[in-house]
Amino acid sequence: MAHSNSMRVLPAACLILSMVILLIVNCTNKSAHSRICSEQKGKWSALLNRKAQHPLDPLTHSEMLAVQTLLRNTSLLGKERQVLHSVELEDPDKQEVLRWKPGQPIPTRHAEVILTIDGVPRKIVVDVGLGKIVEDTEIPGSGYPPISVDDFEKIMASPATYQPFLDSLAARGLKIDEVLCLPLSPGWYGVPEDENKRLTKLQCFVHKDTLNIYTRPIEGIVIVLDLTTMQVTRYIDSPANKAPIPKKDGTDYRFSAQTPPYFAALNPISIEQPLGPSFTLDGHVVKWANWEFHVRPHGRVGNIISQAKVDGRSVMYQGFLSELFVPYQTPEQGWYFRTYLDAGDYGLGIFSLPLQPLNDCPRHAQYMDAVFSGPDGAPYITPNMICIFERYAGDIAWQHAEVLGNEKIHEARAKVTLVVRMIASLGNYDYIVDWEFQTDGVVRVKVGATGVLMIKATDMTSVDANVTKDELDDMRGTLISENTIGVIHDHFLAFHMDLDVDGPNNSFVQGKFVRYSEPPEVSPRRSYWAVEKHVAKTEEEARIQFSLDHPSEFYVVNPGKKTRLGNQVSYRVVPGTSISSLLDPRSSPQTRAAFTNNQMWITQYNRTEKYAAGFLTSQSHGDDGLAVWSNRNRNIEDTDITLWYILGFHHVPCQEDFPVMPTAEASFEIKPTNFFERNPILKMQPNH
Amino acid sequence: MAHSNSMRVLPAACLILSMVILLIVNCTNKSAHSRICSEQKGKWSALLNRKAQHPLDPLTHSEMLAVQTLLRNTSLLGKERQVLHSVELEDPDKQEVLRWKPGQPIPTRHAEVILTIDGVPRKIVVDVGLGKIVEDTEIPGSGYPPISVDDFEKIMASPATYQPFLDSLAARGLKIDEVLCLPLSPGWYGVPEDENKRLTKLQCFVHKDTLNIYTRPIEGIVIVLDLTTMQVTRYIDSPANKAPIPKKDGTDYRFSAQTPPYFAALNPISIEQPLGPSFTLDGHVVKWANWEFHVRPHGRVGNIISQAKVDGRSVMYQGFLSELFVPYQTPEQGWYFRTYLDAGDYGLGIFSLPLQPLNDCPRHAQYMDAVFSGPDGAPYITPNMICIFERYAGDIAWQHAEVLGNEKIHEARAKVTLVVRMIASLGNYDYIVDWEFQTDGVVRVKVGATGVLMIKATDMTSVDANVTKDELDDMRGTLISENTIGVIHDHFLAFHMDLDVDGPNNSFVQGKFVRYSEPPEVSPRRSYWAVEKHVAKTEEEARIQFSLDHPSEFYVVNPGKKTRLGNQVSYRVVPGTSISSLLDPRSSPQTRAAFTNNQMWITQYNRTEKYAAGFLTSQSHGDDGLAVWSNRNRNIEDTDITLWYILGFHHVPCQEDFPVMPTAEASFEIKPTNFFERNPILKMQPNH
To answer: Which of A162, A429, A555, A611 is flagged as catalytic?
Structure first.
């Protein structure tokens, strides 16, 4: 089936390579997605005709088309050296959103358009209703916008015509049509040759014979490409590192490529809901049990949860995965710069693929489609980008059992939660991001990391026999297959949590656990501990590094609200997996990702402070972002504040991670603490 | 239905009070359990006739009867001042168990009997086959065995005849039949009046009008009872603390006691397995997917997982929750001593109640019954003490998606795991202990804490109006209802993990993450980190305190086994929720629970070193247990070693915890790390 122009789900003339994960909804294709497509025709037309119903609804297909027309008419699109990076809803004024009630006309819609014109990043704001540009500014600072789909086209063409690269390939017995080069964000290291140019560094892989290209890197070659001129500005074929291409054997992870014996088949198992799910999805508004919230896809951060309320009381104005930082830990030429800021350098939503029913999300999941802007401003659809489902895992919401006299008491409640999931497939890595809403008021944010490791080739096939200590040290990782090193790296994920606990004005309270002593005449008990609460007055007082030896609890309180007993209404942050950065604090990757200096931060709410490593991250110098904002040291007491939680894990690869990694999980929670008057799920019904 | 003597599921003449959680299988009773009982008659007879099939199978009903007969015949039971605490299988010699193969005759069975005779703890070992006592020794050290069911009877009788207590009740307008007193383990504080006596301290509650007695304490009264003489040795009715009894309103958590409106009813949801579960349970041996292990109920530690193997390769010889430490954090007279060692002071298995299908465990769970010894040596049954089920929670085992040229790849595998669950209902608290086996080789140990808080009564009804700073400080907790304080406390849970990674001889390796730097001429990258591995040679080198600033990974390696690539075969410990103790290290509760000095320990394997706070914990002085054993500083390199993981959480109560607490979870994992040659679930099949 051919799509009409207005449907336009296929971005124009874009070369699809692995890192350009734009879905082509191709209903003639026999893939799983084509089935979704043909089954859901009605849904497409509904999506294409949808109007915004809520101030935070993402730009609709027709709004995107209107923006595209305007950009074309004003000659901001379609010319040489004009690159369109993104078209997104500009966050409306928070007060306006808070005042808005369902049924009322929604406030003026603004589109935020990010362009690069002649290498200069520019932000244009379009009043979508009026069809008018209301802002057009160069974006200050050192960074550049992400590589756009438009860039990819030209990037792909470059190596094929660059003779030294062809020579390098020939020397390795390879042809250009057997390789694929991926544009890596180059970080920033003050290397004189790379200054003041918008760049990418290409890493090339042998594509021939396997689809798992990451396992077959051509080690030692780095192509530095100027993204404005599309010229190779530097070319490195390090003679010192001509490791062989790792073999294709055992690299394919697809089930179709496996041979028996298969893994012991388990009997079918599924989460079943004979009467269907208990939540409703109306546009972008989800209602379930005691929860209500808005969820929308977003090109940069994947998705945004907004206006989350429990029992009608505000918990969070907006929450999203603001930025990632993934530094690889080896100083060599082809690797030292790999210190990705994935959301800003690539885009979590743009790099999401449709979720696969039954494997990515359980049977009764509902799916939400995303509309993003292609490189020419035309909208395209990523179907099933987000799934929403009820989760029952055999867990227990609360329980008590005892025998009292003749009375046996056994009260238990099964735990059912609601999950909002998206998966960003950023090249090799896949990040599963779950927002899990519990009936007891807890929100759990869980990240699963899976996918394929970034591989460094080596001439080693074993660490056993003739390998020296120096060679072992130089691996900077683990030999996970023959000629294949999984390089050590970290994952830091910064969550932007604009909590509005029972209203926008909140304070941040650190409850420090302090040891007390009593003299023997007072009590035989020599020591015990108590909580000393400190209200953070300014941003500096709320830069939190977790410590086992100096434990604390962390509360976002509403100083204007108390329970009937006089306790301050609050949500508590329950830390989960956290790490601290091991990089030199003065080094450029650490400065650029300075949000990893602490595990938690509080800033005064500011509509423009959304992205933890700054608005433009590619090649940024660290002049924007959470650490810079926090340095303003603004008041954060009894005002609108934003909490930033930095989740993270160190990753020393192992053979189990090859050729595809079992999911590693990390999470944290926010938990109502004297928010409710009593256990909010006391009156939940047991199962029979 | 009356039970025959031989069935004997009802312990003789035991007064059932809330902390004596012995199940009476009463088939005339209309409770849920009676249904289980009548449905499962065949099962009872099977259980009663069962013979041990595996060296680690728990003592059978008939073995227990044989032990009882022997004890009676040798006059060790049935006389004054003879108290029977437990009859359990004595751990057979590990080498013997490892040599044993299914089908072979099982090695000689020994029963370990713990008695107190004239206040002196005594251990008797019975050769069950020969019907002969092979060991009879006084147990050295300062501690006493747990309060036995026999004790409870007499303890219950004591307050009713103690006039000062009756006077105190009268002064409060209460009658003896309206109250219930629970025997608390008294800790040890060197109080001269309490020395050299086996004691309990009674805390009394108003039982009238609510089943949630914990919410209605009679504050200020402490009855110190000598358990040998059953005389009150001290009586305290503190005039300074005559807080009112908190009201009954809102304390009942049973669904039958609630009134509308109820919590929003969700549509039915369940984990369904149309072809039934994929695991088999043969006696005590579980086989599922790539896993095989033995599980048995245990009176003291709840349950024990033994000989866990994945792909037929050994991972863990034995794993169990060895001890808990729950110190309450207030120095006042009625509270300072509440520093429970729950496993040793009470017994996690003894205090387990039958699991409730559909609420405690999902639909297709299978259940295992326990046979424990009653106070007269007669065995009784706790049905459904353990459940085993497959868990599918909508999670993803591994995933990768991308678009490569014309090829769309989307491979995802649903994550299914196997859970072994027990719930110890230790008076007010319920601990849900899950051992979760994953197909990727990970074992996750998860603890959920729920139930009812231990309450301190207060005359405060609000912390708002006229409350002074001193009064607030004196609360040592949170006002969670009118006149009701939830007292601050900690939970430490020590897991005994006798890992045998691919064989019994293992070493413990700490991989310290260390920052490296390079001069500018080597790399633009200023810093990165790498792993420096240290093999712990002695126990002292393996006392681990986690630190965010000095991160490490922790491996139990098999120095004799390497992968094909030469990597050392290992399992890694992935820490989860951990805390450090805030108590003065020289104080008696900390010395008695010195296993909380570190978050992880390694000791040389020793069959008798099972319980982290020592063999006898009640009133112990800290002369036995993990810290003492570690001080021997034995060799732990390339030998049989045991890992101890101390999981923990601080608990500052909040109103949401009243009148019953939503489950709080904590966990840690062990994870195969170069144990497999590649991702062990690569060949798992996708769902369709």
So the answer is: A429
